Every structure is written in C-alpha cells, then in structure tokens.
Amino acid sequence: MHTRSTTLTCAAAAVLAAAPIAPAAANAQSGAENGQWRYYGGDAGSTRYAPLDQINPDNVTDLEIAWRWQAANFGPQPEFNYRTTPLMVDGVLYATAGYRRTVVAIDAGTGETLWTYRLHEGDRAAPRRNSGRGVAWWESPGVAPRIFLVTPGFQLVALDAATGRPVPDFGDGGVVELRLGLGRELDLIDAPIGSSSPPIVVDDVIVVGSALPSGSAPRSRTMPPGHVRGYDAFTGELRWTFHTIPQPGEFGHETWEDGSWEYTGNAAVWTALSADPELGYVYLPVELGTGDYYGGHRPGDNLFSQSIVALDAETGERVWHFQTVRHGIWDYDPPAAPVLADLVVDGREIPAVALITKQTFTFVFDRQTGEPVWPIEERPVPQTDVPGERTAPTQPFPTKPPPYDRQGVDPADLIDFTPELRAEAEEILSQLHYGPLYEPPTVPVEGGTQGTLMVPGSLGGANWPGGALDPESGYLYVQSATGPSVISLINEPEVSDMDYIRGGGLRLRQGGGPQGLPLFKPPWGRITAIDLNEGEIAWQVPNGDAPDYVKDHPALEGIDVGRTGRPDRGGLLVTRTLLFAGEGGGMFAAFGSGGNRFRAHDKASGEMLAEIELPANQTGLPMTYMHEGRQYIVVAVGARRHPAELVALALPE
User: Fold this and answer.
1) How far apart are CA 520 and CA 513, in angstroms?
2) How far, CA to CA in Å, does 266 sit from each of 95, 126, 209, 487, 623?
C-alpha cells in the first residue's frame, strides 16, 4: 500500500501546464541544447557542456547570487552532503532534496518552489539513503512530460512534470517495485539494494541501475545481483533485464567459476549512465562483484564486473563490452558516466566514448563497435599470497591517454618539506606493503607489514563527479585526487561469512602522513585537460590552494608550500568560453578539504580567471541554463554546520 504527498500552488500548476513542449535533444555530443539542461549530465552523452557564453571571461568576476533555495526542511536531518544536480526544462528546475529524496519543482528565474512530491516508504531498507543525485525527464508526442525518480527504498516513480502528481497508469498508481524481477527472491522491505543515481531514458525505455551497501566488509558472500533493467516509459512494464552476472548459457557465464554466479551479488551500476539516442545504445559502467577486496568466493575474471557495456536500449542485448579490471580486488569501479565524444584521430572521424576510472586511466573506444581508439596492452601485475585468492595474471593498460594522477607507490614521492617529515613518512611506509598499481591487498603480519598501501586508493583518483567534455576542442576535463588507502584483510566470522573482509588495521588518519600531513608530496588534487583527439594531456593544474590545516601546521612554519591542490570531489561544467570547478566536499574529511570556492578557468590553458565564494562547499555537480535572456549557473552546496541548499549564480541584471 503506497501513500503519497504532493503540494502544488494553483498559479504554478497553470504556468507549468501552459509551458510549451520543446523537442528532445537529438545529438548526444552537442551538449545541453536550447539553453536547457534535460539530462543529469547535460545531454545523454554526459558531456556536462552547454554552448552558452553570456557569462564569459570578460564578466565572470561579476557573478553574484541570484537566488537560493533552502533544503533544510526536507527530511529529519538537514543534509550537508547534498548531491543533486537539477534538470531545467521550459523554465522549471527539477531536483531532489533531503533524506527521504523529495522531488521539487523550482522556478528557474526566482527559486520559488512550485510543487513537491515524496513517497512515504515506511520501514523499507534504504542502503543509499540520501538526497540522490537527481531525476530523469521524458516526453513523447501525445503524452504529458514525466519525471522519473528512484526512491531510497528502491522504487521507480513516474510523476506528471506539470503537477508533481503520480501518473496513474504507470505501474501501480505511478510506482514500480524494483526489488522484483532480479532473478532471486528478495525481501521487499529488508533487501539491501537501492540507488542514488537517476535512471536514463532512451526513446521510450527507462534504464535503471542499482547500488548496494559498501563492499569492504559485506555481511555475506550472498548478496542481491545488480542486473540492469529497462522499463516501458508509458506503462512501467519491464521490457528487458541485462544480467551483469551472466546466467547459464549467456556470454561470460564461464568467468564465474565454481558456481559463484549463483550467490555472488553486486556487479551493479551505482553511478550515472550515458546513452547515444541516435544509435539507440546505452553505456553501463558496471561495478565489482561481492566483495571489494577479496574475490576468493568468486574465482574467475567475473564478467561483467568493472566493465563498460554497450547495450541496445530497445532490447537490452549486449552490443559490445570491455572489462577494465579482471577479477577486481581493489574497489576500482568505473565511478562515473561514460562521456561521448566525436573525435578526429590521425585523420579518422571516430564516434567515441571515454571511460574515466578510479585508477586514473582513461579508456577510449569507438562507441559503435567497442574497438579501442588506441591500443590497450595486457601487462603482468603482482600476484596475491592471500589464502583462497587467485588474481588475474595480467590487467589492461591503455597506451593513450596517459594517467591523470599518481599510480602505485614510489618512495621518492613521499612528503619532504623538511627532513624530519620525510623521515616520519619513511617510517610509516615501512609498516606497509606497497608496490606498483594493482599490488594486491594483504593480511597483516605480526611484527611485519600491516596491510597494502594503494595509490590511488579505493576512492580514486576520479570518483562519481566524473568528467566534462568540450565538443569544440575534444578536451576531456577530469578533477582527481591523490587519495591513498591502506587495505588489510581479516577473517571475522561474527561480521561476515566471507573468508576475508577489510579490517581496521593501520589507517591513514588525518592527512595520512607524518603529524597528520599528507603522506605524499603535492599536488594532492588536480584538474587535467586530456586532448582526446591526440590522446595526450593538454594541461594540468592544482585544483586549489593548500588546505588551512597544512598552511597553519606548526611543522611547516616559515615554509611556503605553494598551490598544492586538494583531494576534493569537485564537479566540473564547461561552457563555450569557460571551465567551472568547485572545491567540492573533500574526498577525505580529515584532509581539511571542503572549501567554499567556485572557480572559473580558461578552458584552453587552465588559467584561473575568477574565484567565487559560495555559502558552503559544493556538494552536487554544477549545471547552467538560459531563462528569459539570463544565464544561470546552479550548484548544490552544504556543510556540517550549513544546511543544504541550491545556489543560483548570474550576472547583475
């Protein structure tokens, strides 16, 4: 039994009902069209690009706050990690807010609330209970435009975009149960599966991913599978299911040895999706199977975990795939939506798709065929000595573009601002197992090493904010962090029935290094421009000043540490003339990250042109649009002592 609440002002309903229906974007690589922002990533190809230039290098320093929309009253606790990215269609923003993921419609020019909707889900488990990253928009001739929401309790809701009311002939009164149809019997109340990311709609098919609890210490080797499904946008009927863990007789089934396909879960798409509407393809960035750091219960390469998979959105049939990590044990999930680009490489026109990764590789493919744009080499990697584990002998390494952040541990990279700090960093390193990229996790040894130091760590590198593409130049922009992790494996039968899970052990507390400073030299955060036509790095700059805890640290008194960058999860936005980048929420809170600066860069060189102060740090990804002749940039912000809100920036009227 579903109960729902919707609020709507009569005036707002009239405005929305009278709004003209604009045609859907036709080209996934043109960016957000007609001054609107119809997809989570701006367009179906997740370029995060808008060909707008009212805000430009000559006036960007004049940006001011045009309006603010408060999310403090949505849910039992004001969220500081407010991850939504609004859509904007015909003068209305659509976003999510609060712990219970309320959908809100907001006037694009004033910030006035037009309607709200929330599904009351009672005691349903919500492993990803947060604001969510947003919603999806859909329209079709003869049908009122719809908003699609995936709730914290894993239900798909269709709303009338004009009123916020559930569409009565979609599913059960506007709601589809997503815990059914996964091929295993799941408890509809307690099953640990949900999602934080919006679906994507291709033609009239809603493609839905999922997410499970953290895989670092799963309570069981038996978890729900993360199969991807397509639903009819008119009726909510299930159209197809793509088994990310292949079933008997399906391609890739043999890569799950010893019957592990029957009980292993995850292999979900927890992050955002991309699509090419002209081809009718949807691109899946598939995560790891259960669990993150030990794969002894799932021997084999484990297709399609940690792969990019292209599906025919109409049928759900696999067109092509590429596995970026075989038999993963490093939590190196593809963290963000693949980015579509139209390239010219050595004189060849290539419709491409680029996948950034936590391990700082960029894999680039022909998006029609899956053929790599540049060779990808199989190279030997270190092997495990953990009982029961069997690692893949090789892993794929793209020859181009180069990595955009550090990979592996080199003692020469340890912090060396002073001899004393360097000596302390060496002492920390001596307690850890380390090596190149793909050094396996280890079991702590009494009197010996206390786990494996991974660089990048399990949080990346890059993460869910992903990249942004400038279709004019072919530059792919990525914001990344040097974020090390220590992974130690323990056997804890009271916690999990797995042989090994991640243990407490030695953790990189505070900055991870001596006296709470970072373990490695700066930069600790970067913005990188990758020229996808050449397969080379065009430019790279630190993504901000040193955190205050570094600049004010007594061990660094009298030392100018320079512009170090920060390990932030900042989102990017590209326009015709500028690249925008926020400082973000901070990949590691103890690093002192989470500044409140929003910067404009010259997109050709990386030069910083303006620095705008926000009310709090950026937590969602920025978007931009035109409304009544005025360009706006909207970004979600929040902090532990600052309730979440949307902030709209514009030039003075």
Assistant:
1) 7
2) 27, 15, 11, 20, 31
Q: Which residues of 96-125 are buried (b: 16+ CB within 10 A; e: fewer)?
A: bbbbbbbbbbbbbbebebbbbbbbebeebb
pTM above 0.85, yes or no: yes
Cβ-Cβ contacts under 8 Å for 126 (sequence gap 6 or more): 152, 153, 154, 194
How many angstroms separate the CA atoms of 100 and 78, rounded?
11
Name the token pair of 212. Answer: 């499970």
Which residues have CB under 8 Å from 431's CB, separation 6+?
A: 449, 450, 506
Q: Write the CA distances from 483 to 363, 409, 589, 623, integer angstroms.
A: 21, 12, 12, 26
CA-to-CA distance for 120 and 102, rounded, in angstroms?
A: 10
State pLDDT tens for residues 159-177.
999 999 999 999 999 999 9
- 430 φ/ψ angles, rounded to the nearest 5 degrees: -65, -20
pLDDT greater than 90 at residue 358 = yes
The H or E element containing residue 14 is helix 10-18
Q: How many degrees, rounded to 5, is the angle at CA 446 between CA 441 and CA 447?
A: 110
The Cα-based distances of 98 to 129, 143, 584, 637 in angstroms read 9, 29, 19, 13
Show the tokens assigned to 169. Answer: 């002939």
Q: What pLDDT score was predicted for residue 154? A: 97
